[in-house]
Amino acid sequence: MLVKIISLDRTIFEGETEFIVVPAKGGQLTILPHHVPLICPLVRGKIRVKEEEKEKIFEIEEGILKVDKEGVKILITPHGI
Questions:
Q1: What is the pTM of this model?
Q2: Measuring CA to CA, how many Å separate 36 from each of 32, 54, 59, 76?
């Protein structure tokens, strides 16, 4: 599944992933390949991105998640801004 994480001034991450976990307003949300279309606000917390053999973590203040047939796009305000 293609995931793109974008901050206000640059692309933070772009690549194929097995799954991601995001801090949604109602709690953690796991997105797997072929997830139903979704738009969701994100709150302060960590985004976990699982690639083939490694996991990356991005701390955010807030953001918005969009899932569609093309993949996942996340617009964020990074932690500390």
A1: 0.91
A2: 9, 25, 25, 21
Q: How far apart are CA 25 and CA 2, in angstroms?
A: 23
Please tell me the distance from the alpha carbon of residue 51 to that of residue 17, in angstroms, as a whole number: 5
**What are the pLDDT digits (tens) for 35-67?**
999 999 999 999 999 998 899 999 999 999 999
Please name the residues in contact with 57: beta carbons below 8 A apart, sequence gap of 6 or more. Answer: 46, 47, 48, 49
Cα angle 4, 11, 37; round to 5: 25
Rounded to whole angstroms, how far apart are CA atoms 14 and 20?
12
